[in-house]
Specification:
mainly beta, seven-stranded mixed beta sheet, 9% helix
């Protein structure tokens, strides 16, 4: 009977599914997004910001991408599982070769049973830092956790005065010379300077769903509407049991949906607060962190109500292990554990790096997915992918527990491609006496751990997550802070390569796209056979 209901539901979903097709011309645009600095950025169809993408659960999203940049590009639908279509996941030299300048490629993204709040961004040369990103909303066909009258989108970004790769390459090439001053980010809200964002309009008595997307690349964001409570109903595209909070604290890549009920009277307007900060940037009163304010408008001529200031540590914020999944799935039993520790070090020129595996992640000479598909039985041996990939080979359907330890002063968010993971536990790790924060408690999840694709691992903390390896493919696991990813804070999960070889093959157009760029499409990480990795640049290991 249960099997019949599942099949019936899937059939019904397919009956209503649509094919949504978009054409994106990815190119350079110019402007002063922060209201101060005129600079080159990356937009779509000549626009920045470019429109959010809206589809419905079960739809097929087709994005025809033309590359008008002078370097390769690719896209990643952040949070979409791409089950059965690993090659459309997007990270350059992990699952594909980038789209060359002047060429086009079509991504076919199946939403299947997923719905919620996501985003799409560039995944080549950190192009998301320079504007190449937009929210992706997959509307549900089912009843929401809490009914609401209207939904609103709130998107946060951090914005810098120079292009990311230009600055990072300059810093890393200084070789001991004095480093330039830190490039402090401004904040953008819904695509524009945070202090000049349009008001959010509330109608008295209405219940609103706010979809909040943190498209930041380095900074954290805190969001509050003093005088109003928020009830969390979704995190990272997964429904949660309702949890009332005072505000949201979000790291790069994370998303929430919250229900906010407007007051019954329009006697007052209110002010919302957005704080943008980063722990690895020294505090400076009035500048770092930066606080932005905007208007919650009930009526044009209503006065603004004064709400007493309350310190953050007296407020309720959603914690990673505190949320409970609405589907009430219990904790998965563990078959295997992988423990990863952030290893921060500097080179002889005082350039900082962070490793998550045994070495710094660096792209190899063959897209790692293509190695997994072409190496036969040897694909089960992590050595064939090259030490630069930090590859971990997973067995089909085993339950994997990953523990990430962060014994350093910098906060991180880690994004799991291809999976949502159960957040089992968070807590202290290492010596936190050097940071301006009280020691954190150990928090064990309730009986129904929340599923997320992007998790915070703050300074001197650890996180324990679990997932079932039921999505054969090559999946990136990386810090979502661009500066950390640039310097190698990532590993690759090679999931069930034997099953992958039976079920998937790379579209011929993708193979030809690699060949036109002189990139190998078969063999180990160096494009050779067996364990011959000659030709790979040397791996960089922490001291």
């Amino acid at each position: 009977m249960i099997h019949f209901l599942v099949v019936f539901a899937a059939t019904l979903l397919g009956c209503f599914a649509a094919r949504v097709e978009l054409s994106w011309d990815v190119g350079y645009v110019y402007g002063a997004r922060d209201g101060f600095t005129y600079r080159r950025a990356i937009g779509v169809n000549g626009e920045l910001p470019f429109p959010p993408v809206h589809v419905t659960q079960g739809d097929t999203l087709v994005i025809n991408v033309h590359n008008s940049l002078d370097v390769p590009t690719s896209i990643h639908a952040h949070g979409l599982l791409n089950n059965g279509t690993n090659y459309y996941d997007g990270p350059d030299m992990v699952t594909q070769c980038g789209i060359p300048p002047g060429e086009s490629f079509t991504y076919v993204l199946e939403t299947k049973n997923q719905f919620g709040t996501f985003w799409i961004h560039g995944h080549t040369r950190h192009q998301e830092v320079d504007g190449f990103h937009t929210p992706l909303i997959i509307h549900s066909r089912k009843q929401p956790v809490i009914d609401y009258d209207e939904e609103l989108l709130v998107a946060f970004e951090d914005w810098y005065t120079t292009e990311f790769n230009v600055r990072q390459e300059y810093i890393n090439n200084l070789k001991g010379a004095s480093r330039p001053p830190t490039n402090y980010a401004k904040a953008l809200i819904n695509g524009y300077d945070g202090n000049n964002t349009a008001p959010i309009t509330f109608v008295p008595g209405k219940r609103y769903r706010l979809r909040v997307v943190c498209m930041s690349v380095n900074n954290w964001f805190k969001f509050r509407i003093p005088g109003h409570k928020m009830t969390v109903i979704e995190a990272d595209g997964v429904e949660s049991m309702p949890l009332e909070v005072d505000g949201l604290s979000m790291g790069p890549g994370q998303r929430y949906s919250v229900i906010v009920t407007a007051h019954k009277s329009d006697k007052f307007n209110y002010i919302y607060n957005v704080t943008s900060y980063s722990r690895f940037i020294t505090k400076e009163e009035g500048l770092r962190p930066i606080v932005y304010t905007g208007l919650i408008k009930y009526k044009d001529d209503a006065p603004t109500k004064t709400i007493p200031v309350v310190s953050d540590n007296q407020l309720v914020w959603p914690e990673e292990a505190q949320l409970q999944a609405y589907d009430k799935q219990p904790r998965l039993p563990v078959d295997r554990q992988i423990e990863l520790t952030v290893n921060r070090f500097t080179d002889v020129y005082n350039v900082p790096y962070s490793a998550l595996g045994s070495s710094l992640y660096k792209s190899v000479l063959v897209p790692t997915l293509y190695t997994a598909l072409s190496m036969g039985e040897l694909a089960k041996n992590s050595s064939v992918y090259g030490p630069q990939t930090n590859a971990y080979v997973l067995k089909h359907l085993e339950v994997v527990e990953i523990v990430i330890n962060n014994p350093a002063i910098e906060d991180h968010t880690f994004h799991f491609h291809g999976h949502n993971v159960q957040v089992i536990e968070t807590g202290p790790f290492g010596n936190s006496s050097t940071i301006d924060r009280e020691p954190v408690p150990r928090i064990l999840s309730g009986p129904w751990p929340m599923w997320r694709d992007t998790v915070q691992v703050r300074a001197f903390e650890f996180i324990r997550v679990r997932f079932r390896a039921d999505n054969p493919g090559v999946w990136f696991l990386h810090c979502h802070l661009a500066v950390h990813m640039y310097n190698g804070l990532a590993v690759v999960l090679i999931e069930a390569p034997d099953v992958l070889q039976q079920r998937q093959s790379v579209p011929e157009k993708m193979v030809e796209m690699c060949k036109r760029q002189g990139i190998h499409t078969q063999g180990n990480g160096a494009g050779n056979q067996g364990f011959d990795l000659s030709g790979l640049p040397p791996a960089v290991y922490p001291p």
